[in-house]
Amino acid sequence: MKSLKEENKKLRDENRKLDRELKKFRSTPQMLASSDRTAEAGGMPSSKVFY
After folding, report:
1. What integer best gives the mean pLDDT of the chain?
2. What angle do CA 16, 24, 38 make, to 5 degrees?
3. Residue 25: pLDDT band with limits 50, 70, 90
């Protein structure tokens, strides 16, 4: 039983770490502008095209 609690704690800690990394990754410019041709940011497409 003790090993299951330890495993659970380890996985929760790893999950928190990965959540923080994912938040950092999602806030990078590469994720905010998924297309270099449109003004997409955060999944909100725009009709403006940058050429």
Report:
1. 75
2. 140
3. confident
Tell me the one-letter amino acid at 41: A
User: Which structural domain range is residue 39 located in?
Assistant: 1-51
Q: How many structural domains does the chain have?
A: 1
pLDDT value of position 26: 81
Radius of gyration of the chain (CA): 19
**In the numeric block, which tokens belong to residue 24?**
């950092």
Cα–Cα distance for residue pair 41/35, rounded to 1 Å: 9
Q: Is the pLDDT at 47 greater than 60, yes or no?
A: no
Element containing residue 46 per DSSP (H, E): none
Q: Give the 3-state secondary structure percentages of the chain, helix then strand then coil, rounded to 5.
A: 55, 10, 35
